[in-house]
Design brief:
The chain is α/β, with parallel strands linked by helices. The chain is about 40% helix and about 20% strand. A hairpin with a 2-residue loop joins strand 13 and strand 14.
């Protein structure tokens, strides 16, 4: 791991971004923002999963006005996502948005950007300059021919300069592409010449498998190189899945740790239990746990305890019996039919002990 680049620090509500603060985990609702009840319910689920900043789409004035009612019922800071109409950005801030994301390629020019910056200054709101490969300024795209990394960086620097000329510096920047290599190269180039905090993400990454892989490769490489202050894993799924992937990525790089880590063997011919079902049930159960814990679910009573010796608690099954072990040593043997119930109860006991 390379040392993290220390960027300027801004705040999105109470959450610090950059300046050496922990990499913040973000997501975005997929509800209709005008439906306050549904949006609040989804934000609460995301908050429970570990989301630290939430973004909502603001498609019209009604959505902008709904922000106040949403904010009054949630505990994490809210960012308004704005495209095309600078007036919606201003309205969103007037109704309590703690951050806004604008795409400089479609906000409408310098004069409109100035109105957004003035409102952000007045309401103490941070702005994310969200450059996207799909909506670069026409002159930049014409000059480069394609949304290559240099084009994304040029767009970002242009709009940073415009905001700086307006006296606004509470910025974070993103350079999003659906292409992994373009994403990596663009962030590397911008990080070398810019000290604003960077929000990482691969846009339109795909479903659970494709999106997880593409995001993990791009963001994993950048984070390993010390680049990035906040991130979103973009998946065509329930956004709660984005939070789970984000924390697993951060855990793998030892940048953040939240909740249990589950390790399980891929199964082989020695496996004599329904390990897929057992592992899935354990994984589903531990999503409610925030305490760091290493849990192993193994299919072989011969090698299971040894292979998972570093786990806090684990289970291995075979020949009609489940062996529960702690720190690689056998703790208890139970009939296979009872193994899930007993194992989950032991996880609860260990969690409660660690929380005391």
């Amino acid at each position: 791991m390379q040392a993290r680049k220390i960027t300027r620090q801004i705040r999105v509500g109470p959450v610090p971004v950059g300046g050496g603060a922990a990499v913040a985990v973000q997501s975005m609702t997929n509800t209709d923002t005008r439906d306050v009840e549904a949006t609040v319910a989804q934000v609460r689920r995301l908050d429970e999963a570990g989301c630290e900043i939430i973004r909502v789409a603001v498609l019209d004035l009604e959505a902008a006005r709904a922000i106040r009612a949403i904010r009054d019922q949630i505990a994490i800071p809210l960012i308004a996502d704005i495209h095309f109409d600078h007036r919606l950005a201003v309205a969103a801030m007037e109704h309590g948005a703690q951050g806004i994301r604008i795409n400089p390629g479609n906000i409408g020019g310098k004069a409109k950007l100035a109105r957004v910056a003035a409102a952000a200054q007045a309401h103490a709101v941070a702005i994310r300059v969200g450059v996207n490969a799909g909506s670069l300024e026409k002159d930049i795209l014409a000059r480069h021919g394609h949304p290559v990394p240099a084009a994304l960086v040029e767009s970002a620097l242009r709009n940073i300069a415009l905001l700086e000329e307006l006296g606004f510096h509470e910025l974070k920047i993103s350079l999003k592409s659906s292409d992994v290599l373009t994403t990596i190269a663009a962030y590397r180039q911008l990080s070398a010449v810019c000290d604003y905090p960077l929000h990482l993400g691969v846009t339109e990454a795909g479903g659970l498998i494709a999106g997880t892989v593409k995001s993990s490769v791009a963001l994993g490489i950048l984070l390993f190189e010390g680049i990035g202050d906040t991130l979103r894993i973009s998946l065509t799924r329930d956004p709660v899945e984005e939070i789970r992937v984000a924390y697993e990525l951060l855990r793998s790089l030892r940048l953040r740790q939240r909740g249990p880590e589950l390790i399980s063997c891929p199964t082989c011919g020695r496996c004599q239990v329904n390990l897929f079902s057992l592992a899935e049930e354990v994984e589903r159960y531990i999503q409610k746990i925030a305490t760091p814990l290493k849990i192993a679910v193994m299919g072989c009573v011969v090698n299971g305890p040894g292979e998972a010796r570093e786990a806090d608690i684990g289970v291995a099954g075979g020949n009609g019996v489940g062996i529960i072990f702690k720190k690689g040593k056998v703790f208890k043997k139970v009939p296979e039919a009872q193994v899930l119930e007993v194992f989950l109860a032991e996880i609860d006991k260990m969690t409660q002990k660690l929380e005391r």
